[in-house]
């Protein structure tokens, strides 16, 4: 809207002003303007500059700190994950050693020599085992712990090894065991001078290490395992134990670097490193000295030694390792008695993260600078737009003061600032209305999205389960077709051969093993078929309490329930449910058997039934007093093939879960470590529950 103007005809002749007064006013106005009045445009630009610059500087500083923190948090999170992977690899070596000794202990040559007290044919077999398993020591003792045969020094025997921790445990529990152990200098000398020389190394102090009087390491750290030896008729005759020395053995640490860090390099230097410490001394490592030799014999920093070796805790952080900075993690290594005897370390070079951090910082600062320039340019434009109408009004006022009455003298709501204010208020009013509508629309949309997301998640879970069932179905069909016939032939012929052999024939044990393992294979195939079939339930009105009583009558006299107390609290007024009785028995039987397996030392199983009137469901809760289920495996309980049992197929709970879904019910689990586990089967009580 243009400013209205008056032409000269609007001025009345009576409007006379003394020229002297006008000259004085003009002089004062000009003098005031020259005295230092600053235009509103300059003041707006100054204000915008200060308002932009200060937040930009604060944002830059905070951004730099946040980027640095995030980079190091990500690096530490990765190293923490790498440490868990390294621990898993280390544990796998121990388990493989234990299992290999357990298998070799079943060989007839081993238990036969002990039973006959004759080492004539034992030497070649023990040498073969030593070479095949890559062991450094392999010894056979009798039931008192006296050495019967020492592979590295077969001419020495009879010394007492019953004080050896692993041998003691096997003699006591008659079960295989493996752990990390320290072997003293004298024990190494019994085995061979080569092992003593391999273990002996000079200790080199590093700049972060604490004070120590140790100068030479003479003992060795071993992965050791032991297994009981039984004859064919189950008579315990001795212990087979052996080990692999870690000192100067780089297989484990190099495998950790290859598997965990993928041999990544930065500037020609490996990014990831791994180390095994005996106490605070590196005995196996791929950390390098300045001359590129492995840094064995060097010591860990005092801070790490205090927390890991003395306190038994995991240490994570930035550490100076031999000659460079690493983002590191250290975990204690403990022997069979739980004593901390060393450490497992993984670390990733800090320099790649610093390099990436600097790149990100330069990018961030560049973006910040561009943002400041852009906002400054916008500020100039905004200041120009704001100052122009004000300058126009000031010019009109100046001309009026100079006597040019053709200009508007009164600046009220009709001037440009007033119009701008009115339009702004109108715009604000419209924006508020639009914002209110958008907010309501957004809340409605968010609610619908959440509802749809829940539906999609449920559909996705159902599709995933269906795909798993379909995959297992195909696998089961193939297994049944391709394996059942050969298994039947193997089982039939091996059973006939077993019947034909005399009772004292040494081949009976191997044939019996074939029969047992074939039956186990048949059981696994049957479990696959049961899981994959998803038999449509034959539903009928059913009293769920009767199903519970049937299951208890089946298991009450089984051997695994001899030390288990069965307690029931069944609601006698339960409404009937539409369900398949056989499939419900299968669900409850599976849960009860799992509960008994979880309480190997005995306990109590409580079965409660009730009618939930709020939901209209019948609930059957089966509780045990076992050790509980770890949090990290709860989500996997109902997945096919997941099992914590050595002989388990991992299909029982999956089958039970599928049966409950086909009955439009649910199977829930609650568990706390040390307080037992409760499985709750929930079924609709409505008689209208139809088939899926």
Give a short synopsis of this structure.
With 692 residues, this protein is α+β, with helices and mostly antiparallel strands. It has helices at residues 19-34, 40-104, 108-116, 122-132, 165-173, 185-191, 193-199, 251-261, 302-310, 351-401, 416-500, 507-533, 544-555, 581-598, 652-662; strands at 137-141, 147-150, 177-183, 201-202, 216-217, 220-230, 236-245, 265-266, 269-270, 272-278, 281-285, 315-321, 324-334, 340-349, 540-542, 564-570, 577-579, 603-612, 617-624, 666-671, 677-684.
How would you characterize this protein structure?
The protein is α+β, with helices and mostly antiparallel strands. It folds into three domains: 78-353, Beta-Lactamase, CATH 3.30.450; 438-533, Helix Hairpins, CATH 1.10.287; 540-684, Heat Shock Protein 90. It has helices at 19-34, 40-104, 108-116, 122-132, 165-173, 185-191, 193-199, 251-261, 302-310, 351-401, 416-500, 507-533, 544-555, 581-598, 652-662, and strands at 137-141, 147-150, 177-183, 201-202, 216-217, 220-230, 236-245, 265-266, 269-270, 272-278, 281-285, 315-321, 324-334, 340-349, 540-542, 564-570, 577-579, 603-612, 617-624, 666-671, 677-684. The strands form six sheets. Strands 2-1-7-6-3 form a five-stranded antiparallel sheet, sandwiched between helices. Strands 11-10-14-13-12 form a five-stranded antiparallel sheet. Helix 14 (581-598) packs antiparallel against helix 15 (652-662). The longest helix has 85 residues, at 416-500. The chain is flat, with a radius of gyration of 42 Å. The protein starts with 18 loop residues before the first helix and ends in an 8-residue tail after the last strand.
């Amino acid at each position: 809207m243009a400013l209205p103007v008056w032409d000269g005809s609007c001025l009345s002749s009576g409007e006379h002003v003394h020229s002297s007064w006008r000259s004085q006013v003009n002089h004062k106005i000009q003098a005031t303007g020259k005295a230092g009045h600053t235009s509103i445009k300059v003041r707006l630009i100054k204000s915008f500059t200060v308002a932009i610059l200060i937040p930009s500087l604060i944002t830059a500083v905070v951004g730099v700190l946040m980027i640095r923190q995030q980079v190091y948090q990500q690096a530490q999170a990765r190293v923490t994950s790498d440490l868990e992977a390294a621990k898993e690899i280390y544990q796998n070596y121990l388990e493989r050693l234990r299992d290999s000794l357990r298998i070799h202990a079943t060989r007839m040559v081993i238990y036969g020599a002990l039973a006959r007290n004759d080492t004539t044919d034992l030497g070649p077999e023990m040498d073969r085992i030593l070479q095949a398993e890559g062991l450094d020591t392999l010894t056979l003792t009798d039931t008192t712990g006296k050495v019967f045969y020492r592979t590295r020094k077969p001419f020495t025997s009879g010394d007492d090894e019953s004080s050896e921790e692993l041998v003691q445990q096997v003699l006591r529990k008659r079960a295989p065991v493996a752990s990390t152990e320290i072997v003293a200098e004298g024990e190494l000398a019994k085995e061979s001078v080569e092992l003593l020389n391999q273990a002996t190394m000079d200790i080199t102090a590093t700049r972060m290490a604490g004070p120590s009087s140790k100068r030479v390491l003479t003992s060795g750290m071993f992965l050791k395992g032991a297994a009981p030896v039984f004859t064919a008729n189950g008579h315990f005759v001795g212990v087979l134990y052996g080990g692999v020395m870690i000192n100067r053995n780089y297989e484990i640490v190099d495998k950790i670097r290859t598997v965990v860090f993928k041999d990544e390099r930065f500037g020609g230097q490996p990014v990831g490193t791994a180390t095994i410490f005996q106490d605070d001394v590196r005995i196996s490592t791929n950390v390098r000295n300045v001359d590129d030799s492995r840094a064995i014999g060097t010591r860990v920093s005092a801070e790490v030694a205090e927390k890991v070796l003395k306190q038994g805790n995991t240490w994570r952080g930035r550490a100076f390792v031999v000659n460079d900075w690493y983002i590191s993690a250290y975990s204690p290594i403990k022997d069979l008695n739980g004593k901390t005897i060393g450490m497992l370390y993984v670390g990733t070079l800090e320099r790649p993260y610093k390099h990436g951090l600097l790149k990100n910082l330069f990018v961030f600062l560049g973006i910040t600078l561009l943002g400041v320039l852009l906002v400054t340019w916008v500020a100039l434009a905004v200041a120009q737009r704001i100052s122009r109408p004000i300058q126009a009004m000031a010019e009109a006022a100046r001309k009026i003061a100079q006597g040019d009455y053709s200009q508007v003298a009164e600046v009220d709501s009709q001037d440009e600032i007033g119009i701008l204010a009115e339009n702004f208020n109108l715009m604000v009013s419209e924006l508020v209305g639009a914002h209110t509508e958008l907010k309501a629309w957004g809340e409605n949309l968010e609610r619908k999205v959440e509802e749809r997301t829940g539906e999609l998640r449920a559909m996705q879970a159902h599709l995933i389960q269906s795909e798993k069932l379909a995959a297992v179905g195909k696998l089961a069909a193939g297994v049944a077709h391709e394996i059942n016939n050969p298994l039947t032939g193997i089982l039939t012929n091996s059973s006939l051969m077993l019947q034909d052999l005399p009772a004292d024939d040494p081949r009976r044990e191997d044939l019996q093993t074939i029969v047992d393992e074939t039956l186990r294979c048949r059981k696994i195939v049957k479990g696959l078929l049961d899981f994959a079939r998803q038999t449509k339930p034959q539903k009928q009105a059913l009293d769920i309490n009767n199903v519970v009583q049937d299951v208890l009558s089946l298991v009450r006299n089984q051997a695994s329930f001899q030390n288990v107390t069965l307690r029931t609290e069944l609601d006698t007024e339960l409404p009937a449910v539409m369900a398949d009785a056989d499939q419900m028995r299968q669900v409850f039987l599976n849960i009860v058997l799992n509960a008994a397996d979880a309480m190997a030392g005995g306990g109590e199983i409580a079965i409660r039934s009730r009618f939930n009137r709020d939901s209209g469901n019948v609930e059957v809760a089966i509780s045990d007093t076992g050790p509980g289920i770890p949090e990290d495996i709860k989500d996997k309980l109902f997945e096919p093939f997941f099992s914590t049992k050595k002989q388990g197929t991992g299909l029982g709970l999956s089958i039970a879960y599928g049966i409950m879904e086909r009955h439009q019910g649910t199977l829930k689990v609650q568990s706390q470590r040390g307080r037992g586990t409760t499985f709750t089967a929930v079924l609709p009580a409505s008689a209208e529950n139809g088939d899926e």
